[in-house]
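QA checklist item 7 of 12: single-chain prediction sanity check.
[x] sequence parsed
[x] length recorded as 140
[x] structure emitted
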Amino acid sequence: MARRPARGPAAVLVLLGVLGTSACAPGGAEECASWPELSSEQQRTDASQLVVIGTVDERDGDERMLGVDAAAWTVTVDETLKGDAEAGSRIRVVSTPETCGSGDWSDPLDTDTPLVLYLVGDDQGNWATVTPFDGTAPAV
């Protein structure tokens, strides 16, 4: 499904609700999600619980999210811009998958280039990119 413009805090709450319940969904059919467009750095930061500059180290399996297998990655934190993560620590990040899309999506965490990662988490300490499209940006 196509991205839709964010409509203030309500859109972020819907987004967080989708991510929060997706981990609990049984391994059934793929779920189609509508994602708010978080086109500015400020919008991405506001929608995130943790924002870090980091380097993706390696693939770390898969997690079921929104009815599909989503790639998980180990990331070394270089700097924390929002939230609590210690520089030098390693965190596991699930790359929120595009669902019901065109199939042109490629995993933004599958790179050797340092990234700014915009992340949401759950109460078990699991992290995922805030959306499939706006969860990363090149680190400058």
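[x] summary fact logged: The beta strands are 4-5, 36-37, 50-65, 68-82, 90-94, 115-121, 127-129, 136-138.
[ ] second reviewer sign-off
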